[in-house]
User: What shape does this take?
Amino acid sequence: MFWDTFTTRAGLLKRGILLFWSLWITLVTLTNLADELKAFGLIPHAWKIGSGNYALIVHSTAVYDTPSWIDRVLLLGVILWEALAALLFWRALRAFHRRRRLRWPLIYLAFTVLLALFGVFILADEILRAYNVESAHRGIAVLLLVSILAIQLLPETASIDA
Assistant: This one.
């Protein structure tokens, strides 16, 4: 019968995980870019698109009376880091799809860059006493680790007996 030997393609799941992170970090980058453009007055503040992360940075750095230009530079640095991670995730997804030799180095690089960003966020949360967002940053870091483990440990094809 059909269910006796059901073959699943874990490769599809792995590509789905890479696609999710590629899309997610791209969206995060774009919404942060909208916030940055609002902060510089290049688009109206009434625009609905935006992450709200600029306001969060301003609130968090207020503990140290940080000038507003530093807040804008911090967000710009985050945007550049996120854009790099997005590029690397899209490259990893493409390499995975084409089964190139560079598959694993690109996958590890993409996850490493994004995990490093969230590591910096967690450290910054401690320095700025931004404990209200630290758990979200830790949660995303854990999801990244679970994702890379799933990609690494799941077989490409598996046979499941019903």
